[in-house]
Design a protein that fits this description.
The protein has three domains: about 170 residues, D-Amino Acid Oxidase, Chain A, domain 2 (2-Layer Sandwich); about 160 residues, FAD/NAD(P)-binding domain; about 120 residues, no CATH class. About 25% of the residues lie in helices and about 20% in strands. It contains 14 helices and 25 strands. Strand 12 and strand 13 form a beta hairpin. Helix 1 runs parallel beside helix 9 and helix 1 packs parallel to helix 13. The termini are far apart. InterPro entries: Amino_oxidase, FAD/NAD-bd_sf, TAT_signal, Zeta_carotene_desat/Oxidored.
Length: about 600
């Protein structure tokens, strides 16, 4: 790895490393089933799972528990975007490399499918397996540039008042107080939540699916605070979407979980949860170990290039690996690749049988990627996530050492005391240091720019982030600088929700009898690029496979998103109003 050194100051930042640097003081561098054939796989039918991310591992898990013979084919590393990525060459003295990652993990309390899977992954000393490695965050911090910061306490649990007027007043006051917005705007936003929460399904899919969130909340007519927090932060930072693109239906569904359900009724756990260690150690490695125990086989370095079709079935998948090109045969194929990779497999032969898959070309992908800053002293920024409201690159961070059972001093060279893990959600807006987008910045410039944006938010009332404390940094290696084009490429873009995109999302099964789709682009309740959506889609794919196979095994459990039962009479009323061409009762 090429390495360059550069000194850091607020006024001058020069030279850096490509992906990770080492600095001296003052310098900046880089419910389980019993497995077995009798549990549902007649004659031990073979399944090829193409892709080893969360969707692929979930499909393999559910199938193996039901006695199928499963092989997972993965191009790079198991876990996909959810995996940890060791920082190459950073370990010394017998210590492992520093843990890097694509981005920090976030497990909202309304997730149901992922926690159910986690409970079925054994972990030494944990009564409920990997699920016990989830810990609740007590607060979130909203940090402004050159302005007052504030903390939002998390973890309310009580029975909400079902009356609409009380919903508006209670939630509106809570939003206005917590987010320091004018009371009238808090009440206005609470009313918009009420409009969505009392909308029937027909309106959600017929009207709100085709409207952008920013238009629904009328952001252009509101204060800067409202636009920054309710329109931009709620979408680009909290749920990896863009307020001018994402549909009201999708963001409204998330708002129904985060804000419309402030008392966490029906949640699996606390509103905001994270893992108590590096993702691989706390989740992915125990998961793959469990799958191996169930008989799942893994082939790494295997890239899927094409699907072969014969008699309205997939007859084989062409795989390229270190030994060349070969065709993999199986009774069933589960495509568990990312949207942009899956749609590259839809050949004319595939589309002849499943023409609806061509609509996937209308799905939009963009970038959301992590960078980690390793520090020589603890970063006492927040006891949870921090959102940097005015950061052009829509940054969110979390200080990890306070959360992990195995402390960071046990990694690397032994001097790292904390890791500030940062997600960069906006790669298309110019930054404050170079006036360039993240896509146009070298790796060194990305690190300097993110550091500068963090300092601009945190150091306005005291030096919370000191240059001298910076040990090193690590950028997701999926980001690759192309020197000739003077811009980056990204091997792991993220599916971004857009208004009207539901019609572009496929069902998990169609007319290709033995082909099943699993991934966060498949139609799910969450309808966002999330681990939960990937897990849910895989369960739906497995259930469809069980139907085709004529299996008598229990179907995978499926969960639905929370809806306040007290508002159901209003939704039934709204169904009549929508059918009559009238607006929602509260849409004034």
């Amino acid at each position: 790895m090429a390495e360059q050194r550069w000194a850091v100051s607020r006024r001058s930042m020069i030279r850096g490393t490509v992906a990770m640097g080492v600095a001296s003081a003052g310098a900046f561098t880089a419910g389980a089933l019993t497995p077995g054939r009798a549990s549902g796989a007649p004659n031990g039918r073979r399944v090829a799972v193409l892709g080893g991310g969360v969707a692929g591992l979930t499909a393999a898990h559910e199938l193996a528990e039901r006695g199928f013979q499963v092989t997972v084919y993965e191009r790079r590393a198991l876990g996909g975007k959810a995996r940890s990525i060791p920082v190459p060459g950073s370990g010394s003295g017998g210590r492992p490399d520093l843990p890097g990652e694509h981005g920090f993990r976030f497990f909202p309390g309304f997730y149901q499918h992922i926690p159910d899977t986690m409970r079925r992954i054994p972990f030494a000393g944990n009564a409920e397996g990997v699920w016990n490695n989830l810990i609740a965050m007590p607060e979130a911090r909203m940090s402004r540039r050159d302005g007052d910061d504030f903390q939002i306490p998390l973890g309310f649990r009580a029975r909400p008042n079902p009356r609409p007027e009380d919903f508006r007043e209670t939630v509106g006051a809570a939003i206005a107080t917590a987010l320091k917005m004018p009371a009238a705007e808090g009440l206005y936003f609470a009313n918009r939540l009420l409009v969505f929460n009392t909308s029937c399904d027909a309106r959600r899919y017929g009207q709100w699916e085709h409207m952008a969130w920013r238009d629904f909340v009328g952001a252009h007519r509101r204060s800067h605070e409202f636009r920054a927090l309710i329109s931009r932060t709620l979408t680009s930072i909290m749920v990896a979407a863009k307020d001018n693109l994402a549909s009201v239906r999708t963001i409204g569904n998330m708002g129904e979980q985060f804000l419309g359900n402030p008392f966490e009724v029906g949640n699996d756990g606390a509103l905001d949860r994270v893992l108590n260690g590096p993702t691989n150690a706390a989740w992915i490695d125990p998961w793959t170990a469990r799958l191996r125990e169930l008989g799942v086989e893994f082939e790494l370095g295997a890239e899927v290039r094409a699907l072969e079709v014969r008699d309205r079935r997939i007859s084989g998948a062409r795989i390229v690996d270190g030994n060349g090109s070969r065709t993999v045969e199986a009774d069933y194929f589960v495509v568990a690749l990312a949207a942009e990779q899956a749609r590259a497999l839809w050949s004319p032969d595939v589309l002849e049988v499943r023409p609806e898959l061509a609509a996937m070309d209308g799905l939009f992908v963009d970038w959301m990627t992590g960078i980690q800053f390793y520090l020589r002293r603890p970063a006492e920024i927040s006891r949870g996530h921090t959102a940097y409201i005015d950061a052009p690159w829509s940054l969110t961070s979390i200080s990890q050492n306070q959360l992990w059972t195995r402390k960071l001093a046990e990694f690397g060279d032994g001097t790292v005391q904390d890791c500030l893990s940062v997600d960069i959600s906006d790669w298309n807006t110019p930054g404050i240091l170079y006036g360039k987008t993240a896509k146009e910045c070298t790796h060194q410039e990305i690190a300097r720019e993110v550091w500068a944006q963090l300092q601009a938010h945190l150091n306005d009332r005291g030096e919370e982030l000191r240059d001298a404390d910076l040990h090193s940094w690590f950028l997701d290696p999926a980001i690759v600088w192309q020197s000739e084009q003077r811009r980056n490429t990204n091997a792991d873009p993220l599916l971004i929700n857009t208004a009207g995109s539901w019609e572009h999302r496929p069902e998990p099964h169609g007319d290709l009898e033995n082909l099943f789709l699993a991934g966060d682009y498949v139609r799910t309740n969450v309808d966002l690029a999330t681990m939960e959506g990937a897990n849910e889609s895989a369960r739906a794919a497995v259930n469809a496979l069980l139907d085709v196979a004529g299996s008598d095994a229990p179907r995978c459990r499926m969960y639905t998103l929370y809806r306040a039962t007290e508002l159901e009479p209003l939704r039934r009323m709204d169904a009549d109003r929508y059918a009559a061409g009238q607006p929602n009762l509260f849409d004034v």
